[in-house]
């Protein structure tokens, strides 16, 4: 049972006081009883002696009747019972009863004592009167050695003692009540400030516990309040530093490029960063979610479960089919750090995988590109060795074809070199402000003869001379030539449209043709080195033109892209930064 503090203090005190008073009261009453009895005894003995001398004055042994009458008279005078008992125990006279009906009194304790020692006293229930009586007897030599006995009931004394007892009980009860009240008040004085302290702790601890206590509070309670104050301060500073620590951890997690996630002993997610959510496709706030239930991928779940069961570390590389992505999952048990749960690190390998594919393709492409001219060179050399040298006109023809192949090889090597130099940033751009119209017109005009030879028509839409771009003219010309070359090459019949204009703070240049178009699957890859959309119909090119164009445009801070519908033509666009001010007007020129 839980008792309030005031009860705990008051109850023992009340008990102690009651017990002390009970013992004290009992002792007092006993003492009083003893004193009263002694006084009584003395008085009755004196009265017996008096009766003896009065009765004995008559001399000799008086008549039984006379003695009886005397006894009654003296008994009344003494307000006591007076009995005279012969030495043999016969009752000679009695003031309260008829001696003839009374039994022999020789066996009575006080009578025996009186006969033997001269006087005797006893307290006993009187068989004759049915009351507790005090008997005092003496041997009365004046009456021939008979015993004179005076007896008085103890009721009066008992009544007086009863009153005393009642007074003691009432006093004790009163004292107990007073003590309980006093200790209750004292306890309240102690417990009130304590309760105030408790309220202070419960209600968020504003201000100081020590100063919120009323004046006059016990020093011990004040000391407690001061201790609480310093504990609260300590706690606050710890909570603050924990929060800081937490914020730092969050900041680190938020800026990690890898996904990080921690699960607890039950497999619930307790810590995560945004990258983990994105890579694993988890709901936005997965706190408390069970990881195996939140993950859709069986292999990811399996890896986590193995570590969860056996501890240690496991790694898995999986491809998510839902959104093409390669992930590496490293699950480590935190058991070695003395913590329950697992640490899951998720790395996105998609980009690395893509670069690996590009590099593999690049090597296979370059070998393929080199093999064709080298094979035809080898064939031509062998033909010459096999005797064609003896036929000068034929040899001449072979040599010419060899020169063409060597030129193609040289061109490819040059383009590769060029590309790698642009890529590595070794060729600085010579940027200048040039009129956009002029920049576009010049390469178009240079390729015009080829357009005409291919039987295509070409239209050109150019802005006014006030639209200027910030560009390296030589490089941009090369971009346009590469794109135009393709347009001519991949358009069997139809037209090519070149246009340039200012849009917002950039210039946009487009080359559209009505040619064979590019399959949708190839479209995202045509800007890669050596990439050709359809190898079977590949027309002599190296597959490097668009890669070079892309790098030049990006070096200018622009973008390049292609749109196409297979069978109905392609449209290549790129942007360049404008040199000054917004664009105005657009002049059309048709060729
Ligand atoms: P190539 O030397 O083969 O022309 P490019 O990098 O210039 O190399 O072009 C890559 C591939 O893109 C070409 O092989 C072709 O399949 C496709 N392509 C480029 N331009 C066009 C176009 N205008 N029409 C159709 N296909 C094109």
Percent helix:
40-55%
Uncertain regions: pLDDT < 50 for 5+ in a row? 582-591
Strand arrangement within the widest β-sheet reads 16-17-15-14-12-18
How many β-strand stretches? 18
End-to-end Cα distance: 107 Å
Structural class: alpha+beta
Which molecules are bound besides the chains?
A: adenosine-5'-diphosphate
Annotation field: number of helices: 13
Arithmetic mean pLDDT: 85
Largest sheet: 6 strands, mixed
Strand content: 15-25%
Structure at a glance:
The protein has 591 residues and is of the alpha+beta class. It has helices at 5-56, 64-78, 109-117, 155-202, 219-255, 274-280, 291-294, 298-310, 350-385, 392-423, 436-453, 473-489, 545-555, and strands spanning 81-85, 91-94, 119-125, 132-140, 146-153, 259-263, 269-272, 313-320, 325-333, 342-348, 432-435, 457-462, 468-471, 495-503, 506-513, 560-564, 570-577, 587-590. Helix 9 runs antiparallel to helix 10 and helix 10 (392-423) runs parallel beside helix 13 (545-555).
């Amino acid at each position: 049972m839980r008792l309030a503090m005031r009860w705990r203090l008051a109850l023992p005190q009340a008990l102690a006081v009651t017990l002390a008073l009970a013992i004290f009261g009992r002792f007092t009453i006993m003492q009083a009883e003893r004193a009263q009895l002694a006084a009584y005894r003395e008085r009755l003995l004196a009265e017996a002696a008096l009766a003896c001398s009065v009765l004995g004055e008559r001399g000799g042994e008086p008549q039984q009747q006379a003695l009886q009458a005397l006894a009654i008279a003296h008994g009344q005078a003494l307000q006591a019972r007076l009995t005279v008992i012969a030495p043999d125990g016969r009752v000679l006279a009695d003031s309260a009863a008829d001696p003839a009906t009374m039994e022999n009194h020789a066996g009575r304790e006080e009578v025996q004592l009186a006969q033997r020692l001269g006087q005797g006293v006893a307290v006993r229930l009187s068989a004759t009167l049915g009351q507790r009586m005090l008997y005092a007897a003496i041997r009365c030599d004046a009456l021939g050695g008979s015993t004179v006995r005076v007896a008085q009931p103890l009721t009066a004394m008992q009544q007086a003692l009863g009153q005393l007892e009642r007074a003691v009980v009432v006093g004790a009860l009163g004292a107990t009540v007073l003590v309980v009240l006093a200790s209750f008040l004292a306890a309240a004085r102690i417990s009130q400030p304590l309760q105030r302290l408790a309220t202070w702790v419960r209600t968020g601890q504003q201000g100081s516990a020590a100063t919120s206590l009323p004046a006059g509070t016990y020093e011990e309670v004040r000391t407690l309040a001061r201790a609480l104050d310093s504990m609260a301060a300590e706690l606050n500073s710890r909570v603050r530093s924990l929060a800081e620590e937490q914020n730092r951890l969050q900041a680190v997690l938020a800026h990690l490029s890898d996904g990080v996630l921690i699960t607890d002993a039950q497999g619930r997610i307790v810590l995560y960063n945004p990258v983990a959510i994105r890579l694993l496709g988890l709901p936005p706030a997965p706190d408390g979610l069970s990881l195996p239930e939140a993950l859709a991928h069986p292999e990811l779940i399996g890896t986590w479960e193995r570590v969860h069961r056996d501890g240690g570390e496991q790694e898995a590389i999986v491809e998510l089919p839902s959104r093409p992505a390669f992930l590496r999952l490293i699950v480590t048990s935190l058991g070695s750090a003395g913590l329950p749960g697992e640490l899951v690190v998720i790395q996105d390998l998609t980009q690395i995988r893509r670069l690996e594919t590009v590099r593999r393709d690049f090597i296979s492409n370059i070998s393929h590109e080199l093999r064709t001219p080298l094979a035809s060179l080898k064939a031509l050399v062998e033909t010459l060795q096999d005797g064609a040298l003896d036929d000068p006109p034929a040899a001449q023809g072979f040599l010419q074809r060899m020169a063409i192949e060597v030129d193609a090889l040289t061109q490819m090597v040059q383009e590769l070199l060029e590309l790698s130099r642009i890529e590595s940033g070794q060729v600085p751009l010579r940027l200048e402000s040039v009129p956009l119209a002029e920049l576009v017109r010049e390469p178009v005009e240079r390729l015009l003869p080829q357009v005409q030879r291919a039987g295509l028509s070409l239209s050109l839409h150019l802005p006014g001379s006030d639209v200027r771009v910030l560009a390296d003219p030589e490089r941009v010309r090369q971009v346009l030539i590469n794109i135009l070359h393709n347009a001519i090459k991949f358009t069997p019949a139809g037209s090519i449209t070149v246009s340039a204009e200012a849009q917002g703070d950039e210039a946009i240049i487009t080359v559209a043709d009505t040619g064979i178009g590019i399959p949708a699957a190839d479209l995202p890859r045509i800007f890669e080195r050596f990439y050709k959309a359809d190898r079977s119909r590949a027309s002599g090119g190296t597959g490097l033109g668009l890669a070079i164009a892309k790098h030049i445009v990006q070096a200018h801070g622009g973008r390049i892209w292609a749109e196409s519908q297979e069978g109905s033509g392609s449209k290549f666009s790129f942007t360049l930064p404008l040199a000054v001010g917004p664009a105005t007007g657009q002049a059309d020129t048709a060729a």
